[in-house]
Amino acid sequence: MRILPTKMNLNTLKESKLLELSSHFVGGNHVEFVSNRQFPVMEPRSGRKLATWHYATAEQVDLVVKTAKQAQKTWAGSTWMKRNEVLKKTAELLKTHCDDIAYWECLSNGKPISEAKADVLSCVDTFNFYSGIAHDLLGHHIPLDPSRYAYTRRLPIGVVAAIGAWNYPIQTCTWKTAPALACGNSIIYKPSPLSPVTALILGEILKTSGLPDGVFNVIQGDAETAQHLIQHRDVAKVSFTGSIPTGKKIMAACAERNIKPVTMELGGKSALIVFEDADVDSGVACAMMANFYSQGQVCSNASKVLVHKSVLKEFTEKLVEKTKELKIGDPLKAETQVGAHISEEHRARVEGYINGAINEGATKICGGDRIQVPGLDNGYYLSPCILTDITPNMTVYKEEIFGAVLLIIPFDTEEEAVRIANDTDMGLAAGLVTKDLAKSYRISEQLNAGNVYVNTFNDVSPLVPFGGIGESGFGRENGVAVLEHYTQLKSVFVNTGTCPNPF
């Protein structure tokens, strides 16, 4: 392991040669492991290579786990005031350096800079929320009889292995890191190789905030690295955000060597229902938020937009008009609303869904075209697409697209809308647009989803649990509920009298 002498300067992040620092952050240092396993760090907006980094090998993973295990003991013994201080300071630094962090998020992910800034500010809220969570880590006192009682304690779980998704790099890292640290755990975070940069910045911020070295670590890796990490005997907990097939492999790998709890935040095939009494303009806004934000690369997106036939014509006309007005371009420009896809491979995958749907009988009424952005000719741009004439046998109806492809599906009755919305094994999200409060309650109860949105979509808050049911996974991110996933419960029985002899 080579420790890099250059320390990241938070005050000159945008100007610094950040990508030359290192691939990893271990034990409070930017480090480079000697490895022949390399990968390119790409810039989606231009298609150019930013750097060449290295995956961690099995032996290097062992070293990082050892570092995290040793550091966790010290952190677990810290007072709640110390944890509060570190997490609060982290929130302050994230806010102070928001623009520069967003710059790197945009550069390595391709999303518009306005969205990247919003993501960083959401991380500020998350660290602030978990800095004051100590009062929710309390146990219970249970009287049993005059001479016997029991009490419970919530204890840190140990070393947490967290594997993040490429679509929300800094936010996914924060959602896993903040509660894990608040509960007294150490964490080893493996970002996606497609967006690996900003987790390293968070490591520097946590160190500057006073987090002991080794409590937060970042390693770069592929599936081989991840498998060794999650199967390590000293890793006590795994949290994963990503695709359903990968999630199933991780669950199997975790059970293969030593049983450990896992949190799975997986994909979805969600629906948004626009009822006949809806404000059509609000329905259009919800549909666009549910499909075109972050180039449609959002796990909870509602590609199936179900529209009551009585408002179908007005809704479709307004949706197409608003979609054509979207500004597609350089993600670093403030006016850009649609940026670049994460990779050329992923753009081609989304195009494959569009072309496949057309071959199966769907009609393209808007978008789905490659866009040439001046000066960024090799960037991965694709205009948001709207398809009609969708049938249940089509691949786009059944599978998660993970791109800006919106399917308009007409319906007549509530029962039909609910049936179509629930016609999937996944259950991450669902939404409805209506002015009828009673209807909103009634339909929300019938939708099989972990998150339901009424007159909004993809709303998120660190105060509210987020997660899915069915094939979309289990466990939760955010809220007080997540504390159950980063702690273990100990029950203690106490007898103040003489131990009874049953013999």
Automatic annotation (TrEMBL):
Residues 37-492 form the Aldehyde dehydrogenase domain. Keywords: Oxidoreductase. The keyword ATP-binding does not apply. The active site is at E265. InterPro entries: Ald_DH/histidinol_DH, Ald_DH_C, Ald_DH_CS_CYS, Ald_DH_CS_GLU, Ald_DH_N, Aldehyde_DH_dom. GO terms for molecular function: oxidoreductase activity, acting on the aldehyde or oxo group of donors, NAD or NADP as acceptor. It comes from the Eukaryota. Belongs to the aldehyde dehydrogenase family. This is Aldehyde dehydrogenase domain-containing protein. It comes from Caenorhabditis nigoni.
